[in-house]
Amino acid sequence: MLYIGSDHAGFKAKQNIKDYLKTLNREVEDVGPEEFTPGDDYPDYAHKLCEKMRDSDKGILICDTGIGMSIVANRYKHIRAALCASIFDALRSREHNDANVLVLGAETTDFETMTLFVKVFLDTEFSNEERHIRRIDKI
To answer: Which of 59, 60, 82, 87 is least crowded, fewest Cβ atoms below 10 Å from its Cβ?
Structure first.
């Protein structure tokens, strides 16, 4: 399953990314918010997403910079959230870190670029190289 969540700052980007994911025939569960709610709190949606996720799931979180969502998500043992600011970040987060949550900044990344990050993140497999497994185990 692919989960997606945002706060008010990432709401429009979340809606657009959900539409983009439909074109990729990806099944998505939106953990909220269901409607634009000025002043809502990003931790609420990060917690919802992380609590739903299991070993094989992936997620996407969006707030204004992505920093807050990253901080919350990475508090969970089963989550490796990567705030990505480039295609290379999205690629390496999957290949080397087996990241399972892509975090995006709605105020720092335009929609077209976000879709590139999403595609790379979803299409890239973990390398399964011993050195990367060893490093993840040390986390």
So the answer is: 87
- Report pLDDT digits (tens) over 80-113: 999 999 999 999 999 999 999 999 999 999 999 9
Mean pLDDT of the chain: 97
Ordered domains of the chain (ranges, CATH): 2-138 (3.40.1400.10)
Cα–Cα distance measured from residue 8 to residue 56, given in angstroms and rounded to the nearest whole number: 28
pTM higher than 0.85 for the full model?
Answer: yes
Catalytic residue among 8, 47, 78, 96: 96
Concerning whether 47 is annotated as a catalytic residue, the answer is: no
> Closest by alpha carbon to 90, among 50, 123, 132?
123
> Which run of H or of E encompasses 51?
helix 42-52
